[in-house]
Structure formats: structure tokens, C-alpha cells
Design brief:
Largest sheet: 5 strands, mixed
Distance between the termini: 58 Å
Radius of gyration: 35 Å
Helix content: 55-70%
Number of domains: 2
Strand content: 5-15%
Strand order of the largest sheet: 2-4-5-7-6
CATH architecture of the largest domain: 2-Layer Sandwich
Order of helices and strands: HHHHHEHHEEHEEHHHEEH
Number of strands: 7
Shape: elongated
CATH class of the largest domain: Alpha Beta
Number of helices: 12
CATH topology of the largest domain: Heat Shock Protein 90
Structural class: alpha+beta
CATH superfamily of the largest domain: Histidine kinase-like ATPase, C-terminal domain
Amino acid sequence: MKLGAYLKDHFYQFLIFLICSIFQILIFLSFKVNLSVILSSTFLYVVCFFLVLFIPYFRKKKFYNELLSNIQALDKSYLVLETLTKPEFYEGELIYQALYEINKSMNENVRMMEEHLQDFKEYIEMWIHEVKIPLSTLVLISNNHKEQFDKKTKLQLKRLENYVDQVLYYARCENAEKDYLIKEIELSQVIKNVGLQNMDEILENKIDYIVDNVHAKVLTDSKWLEFILGQIIHNSMKYKRSIEHSYIKISVIEKQDKIILIIEDNGIGIKESDLKQVFDKSFTGENGRNTNQSTGMGLYIAKNMCVKLGHKIEIESVYGEYTKVSITFAKNKYYDVLK
């Protein structure tokens, strides 16, 4: 609360005080009152005016300064009421009560929205699980009756299955902690599962699936990690180059305090200008504009899931040469001691 602004806000009080003071002096002079009496009376009048003006200022200053500073300090400004001491002046009480009612109304609306959102998520998850049943049946039928289903049909089924999984994991991502289970897993098994799940597409695209020295144990959720790897591998297949020898190479680097899982391909790569945005929601970049298969959601969901799991995901690429994705798992020494 600035003194200058406060005084400016009370300009009319100053003007009225000045006019009243002049009238008072003129009245005293008209009655030929002693000059010392006039001066004493005027001085007392001025002192009383300034006391009446500045006492409320100092009472209000503490409350308003606390209000403004707390709003700036809080990440969630709507929680400011919880940090304030109830003021002892009437205007402050009105503001405090107004903030209380606003906060109460906001909390009720947020609670209602959260309930609606939770209901919607539950419905989406239920719907996806229901859809996956006939979809899985179609995939099984296509595998058992290959002569009746051409490669294009099987490819479209696989793409549909991937998009359904994307929706499912995206819906769960906000409340991921309710769904994942962190435990020690063998990376080689996860990589093997992902390879088998995408075997048909890998063979169809004539890509070498190279797995090199991946026998390392990490703390993560195997189901979520399989999905993350699946999204990275789908991107590798989607953006392969038209060359004779295409590959996806998966390897592990084990260091003293961390384990790094590396997925590298020799596809078309990513332009340097797009690298900083590849994990942004719905970002497709230059490559996405050249193909109608890109949604820009796969890496966005993968990044969010890595954050939830406590992993670090990074990407590097040279356009026209390669793309390398690294997932870093921290080693938990506390876990090693207790297990």
C-alpha cells in the first residue's frame, strides 16, 4: 500500500479541509479573535485532520501489503485467504468476507468439475476396454485367416489398436499414481515384449530390430514402460527412410548412479528447429506435415508418463541421418540396501 496513492485517493478530503480551514480563519478574523487563538485553533485542527487521515492508513497498510505480497508469493493465488490474519477494520473485514465467499464458491465449482471429469474419465476407460475386446478379436481373426485379410487391413487394425491405447493412457495420465506399480523389472523382458507386439509392422517395414546388451534391472512399471517404448518404436517405423537397410537399435548404458535405455533409428530424423517441441501436445512439426499419420500425441504422452514414473526422457537427432531417444532411470541405493 503506497502512501502517495493513498493520499491521492484522499484528495477531496484535503480540499474540503483546506476550504474549511480558510472559512474558520475568516470567521475568527471577522469576530476579531486574538491571533494566538486563531493559530492555536488552526494548528489543533490540522493535527486532528492528519491523525484522522494517517491512523487508518497504518491500520490498513499491514493488511493490504500482506495480501499483495502473499498473492505474489503463492503459486496458487486463490489460496491467499488461508495465509491472512482477519483484519480489525471494517473495510478489511468486508474484503476478507468477500474473499471467503469467493473461495468457497470456487472450491464448490472445482469439486463439481473434478467429479464430472472423474466420471468422464471412468466412462472413457470403460468404453476403451469394451472397444479393445472386438478389436483384439479382429486382430486375432486376421492372424488366423491371413488369406482373407491383406496387409493393409492388418496394418490399419494395428494403427487403430495403437490409437485406442493412446486414448487409454492419456485418460489415465492425470491420475497415473493410481494405476502404476513401481517394482524392479528386467529391461530385456520389456524390450522383448514390445518387439513381439510390433513384430508384424517391423517385418512389414523391413526394419532390423537390433537389441544389444540390455540385461539391466530398473525400478519402473513394466506396463507403462512398454507403452512408452511402443510409442517411440511406432515413430521410428512411421518416419523410416526409403533405404535398403533400416534399423531400430536398442541398447543400455549402465553407470554408477543411473541406467540409460537408448532407442536409435536411421530414419528421416527431426529438424533442429523442431527438436525443442517434439514433446509438446499435438506438435507434429515438419515431418507431421509430410504425412497424414501423425497426431503429435505419442511423445507427449510418453513424456508425461516418464515424469510420473520419475524417469528422464531426451531426444537428439540429425535430419536425414538418425534419431536417438534416451530414457534415464536413477539407481535407488536405498532400495538396493533394503531388498
